[in-house]
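This part of the workshop introduces the protein records we will be handling. A record pairs a protein's sequence with a compact description of its fold. As an example, a complete record with its sequence and its C-alpha cells follows.

_____
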Amino acid sequence: MARKKVDTFEHIDETNQLLREGGLLLVSQGKDEKTNIMTIGWGFLGTIWRKPYFVIAVRQSRYTYKLLEESNSFTVCLPAKGMDKVLEVCGEQSGRDMDKCNSLKLTVEKGLTIDTPFIGECPTHYECEIKYKNVLTPEALDKEIVQEVYPKRDMHVLYYGEVKGAYTLI
C-alpha cells in the first residue's frame, strides 16, 4: 500500500495515547539484517536540537539493544486496531528465540529514508536516525525510580532518533 509523508507531529496525540494504553512497535535491524519487533510503552516525540526526535528506552538485557548497537536507525510503528496479539507477542517474546515477523505473518517493508524497515500493517510509522544515546545510571536517578523500576539494576539506554520522516497510509 502507498504511503505519504506527513508532518512529524500530525499523529502526536495518537502516538502518546498508544504509549499510555497499549504500546507502539519498535522495529530494529542489526548487522545480520534480521528484522526484530519489540513493544514499547515508554518514549517521547518532541523537539530537541531544533529538530523532531523520537526518544526510546531499551533495557541493555534486551535483544533489541544488541541490534540498536549494531545500527544507526530504528522505526516506531503505530499499530492498527486489532493488533493486540502482535503487541502481546512482541512484548513477551524475544527475537533471540523467535522470528516474530514470520510467526505473526507481518509484512516487513523497506524504510523510505533509512535502512531499518517498518511493518506494513501499521497505518503510521516514524523513521529515525540515531544521533545520541545515553545509558541511565542508578546514581543519577531519583531513588524511588531506581527502587520501583530498576530493582535488578537492568538499566535502560535512551536512544535519540532524529525523525527523518513520518509516513501514513494513503
